[in-house]
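testing teh design pipeline on a random one, pls ignore if ur not involved
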């Protein structure tokens, strides 16, 4: 069997294309998460930046620069502001433990009445109040392991913050040249779905923005309100605790893990009235997660809230934080394709045209 020259040329071309694709993937692999974050940030901020550019006389570059500066202030400002107070708190805590002057107030009898954990928590609390050094010695291995995990988590959080800062800057560049980016996105989607590219492009944009508002927006509101309560009641390093609330909320973990221990601390160290006001302030904050998130996530998306929620949570479990966004996008698009396949072609086309408009 003989192979002609054209066949050999085709094989060589395919091999070269495959090699270029593989090399390109290997080169950009370390930056994939940053680029994906940049795309998510750019898509989410696009309407606001375009509005600002219009107010500034159609200057998208200046509007994108202002957006980047504001984002960097919002990211770096709270971290930089909380670090000195956090360092002082840790230094003071270590000095008190070493000198034996750290005093833990005795537990109230009401703690013993708490369901399930009341009795054990009361005994542990009392031991800390009467013999703190002995308690620390007893749990020294667990404390050592916990400190290692905490330090590694802090390092990971620092790296994630740095990556997010880079992603914000890249997103600013994308927004400054948004016309070219929108054209490329439309060409890409048209290659995949030539029948209704505008519909799926709008669907993707709305899903990303809805998840951003529902997850990040609610997390910002919860952390700011919780931080105000921490600061007013006099919690040490209130900014740091508010930042931890934001991280937990973004990761879809309830901020109750922060608020409840602080509420217990407030009940043990403050009078009844300020403690009651602090708890009353935090109850609606905890409820925001269940009230605002469904409304914001489903805003502008022609898909059931259950589909968006399952896509976000499933994506987060499977692929981490980025999966919150792309899981929702993929499942919403899959749902839309399924409905279009089940519908009458004329009705499906009309629905796609309506959603685009």
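output:
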């Amino acid at each position: 069997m003989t192979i002609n020259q054209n066949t050999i040329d085709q094989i060589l071309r395919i091999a070269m294309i495959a090699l270029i694709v593989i090399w390109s993937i290997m080169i950009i692999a370390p930056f994939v998460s940053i680029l994906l974050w940049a795309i998510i940030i750019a898509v989410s901020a696009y309407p606001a930046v375009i509005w600002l550019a219009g107010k500034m006389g159609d200057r998208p570059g200046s509007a994108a620069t202002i957006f980047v500066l504001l984002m960097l202030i919002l990211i770096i400002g709270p971290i930089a502001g909380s670090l000195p107070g956090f360092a002082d708190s840790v230094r003071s805590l270590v000095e008190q433990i070493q000198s034996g002057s750290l005093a833990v107030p005795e537990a109230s009898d009401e703690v013993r009445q708490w369901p399930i954990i009341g009795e054990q928590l009361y005994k542990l609390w009392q031991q800390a109040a009467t013999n703190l050094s002995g308690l620390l010695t007893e749990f020294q291995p667990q404390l050592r392991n916990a400190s290692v995990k905490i330090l590694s988590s802090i390092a990971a959080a620092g790296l994630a913050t740095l990556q997010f800062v880079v992603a914000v800057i890249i997103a600013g560049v994308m927004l400054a040249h948004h016309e070219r980016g929108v054209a490329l996105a439309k060409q890409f989607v048209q290659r995949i779905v030539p029948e209704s590219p505008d519909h799926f492009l709008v669907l993707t944009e709305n899903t990303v923005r809805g998840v951003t508002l529902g997850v990040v927006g609610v997390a910002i509101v919860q952390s700011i309100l919780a931080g105000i309560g921490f600061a007013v009641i006099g919690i040490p390093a209130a900014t740091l605790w508010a930042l931890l609330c934001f991280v937990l909320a973004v990761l879809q973990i309830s901020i109750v893990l922060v608020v409840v221990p602080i509420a217990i601390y407030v009940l043990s160290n403050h009078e009844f009235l300020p403690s009651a006001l602090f708890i009353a302030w935090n109850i609606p904050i905890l409820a925001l997660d269940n009230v605002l998130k469904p409304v914001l996530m489903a805003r502008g998306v022609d898909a059931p809230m259950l589909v968006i929620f399952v896509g976000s949570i499933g994506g987060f479990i499977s692929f981490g934080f980025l999966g919150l966004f792309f899981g929702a996008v993929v499942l919403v698009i899959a749902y839309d394709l399924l409905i279009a396949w089940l519908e009458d072609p004329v009705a499906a086309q009309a629905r796609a045209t309506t959603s685009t408009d």
